[in-house]
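FAQ

Q: What does a record look like?
A: Structure on top, sequence underneath. For example:
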């Protein structure tokens, strides 16, 4: 496995990614009991070569895959093939780090237009009239 490419100026050396093969969970017959095809990926954010800004964004993210000690832990067992699970785990790590790099545009506050406000008031008045017609009639 070569270095993991994240962005044009960011990559992770393969030594920083710890991949361990474990047995898969769930149904699957005898194959599950004898083959370690699931992959545990561990990546230490603090010890990584990522830029400090990216590390802080990852650590501040509210994600159950990131522990309080700053470890990213991913378990991948989608495929019966250990090789495919390795590739999927590395792709999941890559996507997680890339999601932090996306700069979101600030939301522009908007107000409803005059026509929309008038339409809303008109609907409220009609609804109120329907409710008054339901009241008991006095003799």
């Amino acid at each position: 496995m070569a270095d993991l490419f994240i962005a044009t100026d960011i990559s992770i050396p393969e030594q920083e990614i710890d991949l361990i093969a474990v047995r898969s969970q769930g149904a699957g017959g005898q194959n599950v009991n004898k083959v370690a095809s699931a992959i545990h990926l561990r990546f230490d954010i603090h010890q990584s070569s990522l830029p400090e800004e990216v590390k802080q964004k990852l650590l501040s993210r509210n994600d159950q895959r990131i522990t309080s000690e700053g470890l990213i832990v991913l378990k991948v067992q989608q495929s019966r093939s250990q090789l495919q699970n390795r590739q999927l785990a590395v792709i999941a790590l890559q996507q997680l780090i890339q999601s932090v790099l996306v700069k979101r545009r600030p939301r522009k506050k908007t107000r409803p237009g005059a026509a929309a406000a008038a339409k809303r008031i008109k609907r409220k008045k009609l609804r109120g009239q329907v409710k008054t017609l339901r009241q008991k009639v006095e003799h």
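Q: Is there anything notable about this one?
A: The mean pLDDT is 90.
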